[in-house]
């Protein structure tokens, strides 16, 4: 695993874990309140991880990939929540 991928996967894992936690512990009417909060946490963690690496090369691509993947995960979970509620 390259260091670029190792800096992207934790953000995706945060989005997946956040989606599962929302699905398990949130009331059905509150799903759509918590999804943007998880996405905001994913964005903040993406920037934190990428800035902690301290490498300029590919910074925008890594942040875009991290947040884009988290967005895809949360869109899929939102669709599942919409069908379930």
Write a concise keyword list for the protein shown above.
85 residues, 3 helices, membrane, transmembrane, mainly alpha, transmembrane helix, elongated, single chain
Order of helices and strands: HHH
Provide mean pLDDT, rounded: 93
| Poorly predicted segments | none
Helix content: over 70%
Which geometry do the CA atoms define?
A: elongated
Number of structural units classed as domains: 1
SS-based class: mainly alpha
Number of strands: 0
Measured distance between first and last alpha carbons: 38 Å
Cα-atom Rg, whole angstroms? Answer: 14 Å
Number of helices: 3
Major sheet attributes: none
How much strand?
under 5%
Keywords: Membrane, Transmembrane, Transmembrane helix
Task: Describe the overall structure.
The protein has 85 residues and is mainly alpha-helical. It has one domain. The protein is built from 3 helices and no strands. The longest helix has 26 residues. The radius of gyration is 14 Å and the shape is elongated. Keywords: Membrane, Transmembrane, Transmembrane helix.
């Amino acid at each position: 695993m390259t260091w670029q991928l190792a800096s992207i996967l934790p953000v995706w894992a945060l989005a997946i874990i956040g989606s599962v936690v929302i699905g398990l512990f949130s009331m059905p009417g509150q799903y759509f309140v918590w999804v943007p909060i998880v996405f905001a946490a994913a964005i903040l963690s993406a920037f934190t991880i990428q800035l902690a690496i301290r490498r300029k090369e590919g910074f925008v691509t890594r942040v875009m990939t991290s947040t884009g993947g988290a967005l895809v995960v949360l869109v899929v979970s939102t669709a599942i929540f919409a069908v379930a509620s």
